[in-house]
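To make the argument concrete, we let one protein speak, a sequence paired with a row of C-alpha cells, as a model reads it:
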Amino acid sequence: MAQEQVTLFYRFGVALLIGLLVGLQRQYAYDEVEQDDQKMVAGIRTFALMGLAGCTAALAADLLESPWAFVGVVAPLGALITAAYLMAAYRGDVGMTTEVAALVTILAGALAYWNQLALAVAIGVATTVLLSLKLELHRFAERIAREDILATLKFAVITAIVLPVLPNQPVWDRPPFDVLVPYKIWLMVVLISAIGFLGYVLIKIIGSHRGIGLTGFLGGLVSSTAVTLSFAQRSQRHADMAKPFALAITIAWTVMFARVLLEVSAVYAPLLAELWLPIVAAAAVGLAYCAFLYLAPHQGDEGEMAVSNPFELGPAITFGLLYGLILLISRAAQLYLGNTGIYLSSLVSGVADVDAITLSMTELSRSGNLEPATAARAIVLATMSNTIVKGGIVLTSGSPRLRRVLLPGFLLILATGLSLAFLL
C-alpha cells in the first residue's frame, strides 16, 4: 500500500512539474511583451494547476471506473479556456497558442497518471520548446520558398505511400543480387535525407551568416563537400579570411565523422564496437585543430552559403540508385575478390559519397554477409578517401593562404584515420 502511495505521488509530481515548466515559459513570454490593455490568460500557477487537474481527472475516472468522470473534470476546464479565448479575441488578440498549450498540459497530466510518464514528459518538453521557438519558427517560415514546401511534400508523399508497399525481399535471391532489397534501399534514402534536412532547417532558422563555425557545423549536416567547395572558392576573393574558412571546413569534416557514427548506430549499432576508435580519433584530431584555428586571431565573416533542400526527389532518387549500386558492387567484390575487393570498392565509392558506402557496409555486416572488422575498416577507408577528395578541392580551388592553413589539419586527420584503420 505504501508503495502504491509513493507511485501515486510520483505521478502527480510529474504532472505538476510539466505544468510548471510550460507555465514558466508562458509567464516569461508574457512578461517580455506585456501591454497595459492585455491580461495574461494563464501563468505559471494556472498551468501547474492544469497539470494537476488532468492527473486528478484521470484518477477520478479510475476510482469511479467511468470515463465520464474524466470528462466531467476536463470539460469545465475546456469551457473556461474557450471563454478566455473568446474574451481575448474580442479584444483583438486572435492567437490561441496559450489556450492550446493549456489543453496539452491537462492531457499530459492525465498521461502522467496513466503511467505514460516518458510520453507525458516528452510532450511537456516539446510543448515548451515549441513555445520558446516562436521567433525562430516564424523566421524559418519566412525564409522557406514555395519550392522548399513542394519538394518536402513530394518526398513525404512518396515516402509515406511508396515505402510501405515496396517489397521487403531481395529482387533476386542469387548472390550478389540478394542484397538489393527495395524497402531497405529507400529506407536508407529517408535516413540520409532526414539528417540533411535537419541541417537545412537549422540553416534556414539561424542563417548561415551567424558565424563561420556555426556555418561549418550546419553545412556539415547537409554536405561537408559542399561546405569545402563553397569556402575554398570564397577564399580566392577573401584571402585574408583563410583561418575562418579553414575553421568552417574542418568543422564540417568533423561533423562528417559524427554522421558516420550516427548512421551506423541507426542501422546496426553492434558495428560501433569495431568502428568507433578510428572514427572518434580522427574526429578528435579535427576538433583539436578546430580549437587551434578558433583561438588564432582572425576576422569574422557575414557571407551566406547556398544550400538546397535535401528532400528534393531528384537527389534522393540519385542517392538511392548510388546506394544500391555500391551495395551490389561491394557484395560482388567480396564474393570474387575477398576483402581486397571490399577495400577497393570502399576507396572508390568514398570519392563520390561517404554516406552510401557507410550504409552499404553496415547493411552487409548486419545481414551477416561481411565480418564487422572488415566492414569497419572499409568505412574508415571510405571516410579517408572522401577526406582526400575534399582536401584536393582545397588544394586545387582554394587560395594559397587557405592551403597553408588547412594542410596540417588535413594531414593529421588523414594520418590518424588510416593508421588506426589497419589496427582493426
Q: What stands out?
A: The chain has a mean pLDDT of 79.
